[in-house]
């Protein structure tokens, strides 16, 4: 059993022991069998809960390219957002989706000119030759 599967089982145990109103989990390993498929993870997260949160959680998975939000990563991450059904019975995941769309930065790479000195030519060749003299 991989360490990510063990970690996930500990998270489920924690949700079944400690009452939390909401949670966010990131980068769950979906390649691990047999517990690695998305349906099993969603079912386990949705049905977990303890005490005042025994009704379980409304859970949604979001695939996010974190560089769209200004974070230096090129890998797509999987985020699970869970909200207690008993604490927030009227909550809609559409609120999370709207906020994610609203805060997307769509950062562009910097222009090459940002890295050139004031007297550099467009090719930069002249400056390199001058520096060697």
Written account of the structure:
- By secondary structure, the protein is of the alpha+beta class.
- The protein is built from 4 helices and 3 strands, in the order αβαββαα.
- The chain has helices at 3-17, 38-47, 94-103, 125-132, and strands at residues 22-26, 57-65, 76-84.
- It has a 3-stranded antiparallel sheet, with helices on one face.
- The mean pLDDT is 76.
- Keywords: Methyltransferase, Transferase.
- One of its GO terms (biological process) is methylation.
- InterPro entries: C5_MeTfrase, SAM-dependent_MTases_sf.
What's the gist of this structure?
This protein has 133 residues and is of the alpha+beta class.
Q: Topology of this protein?
A:
Blueprint: H1 3-17, E1 22-26, H2 38-47, E2 57-65, E3 76-84, H3 94-103, H4 125-132
Antiparallel strand pairs: 1-3, 2-3
Keywords summarizing the entry:
single chain; 133 residues; alpha+beta; Rossmann fold; 32% helix; elongated
Q: What is the C-level CATH assignment?
A: Alpha Beta
Order of helices and strands: HEHEEHH
Architecture in CATH?
A: 3-Layer(aba) Sandwich
Unreliable runs, pLDDT <50, ≥5 residues? Answer: none
Number of strands: 3
Gyration radius, rounded: 23 Å
Biggest sheet details: 3 strands, antiparallel
**Structural class of the secondary structure composition?**
alpha+beta
- The mean pLDDT is 76
N-to-C CA distance: 61 Å
Helix tally? Answer: 4
* Helical content band: 25-40%
- Globular, elongated, flat, extended or rod-shaped: what is the shape? elongated
CATH superfamily: Vaccinia Virus protein VP39
Measured by DSSP, the beta-strand proportion falls in: 15-25%
Number of domains: 1
CATH topology: Rossmann fold
Strand order of the largest sheet: 1-3-2
Keywords: Methyltransferase, Transferase
GO molecular function: methyltransferase activity
InterPro entries: C5_MeTfrase (IPR001525), SAM-dependent_MTases_sf (IPR029063)
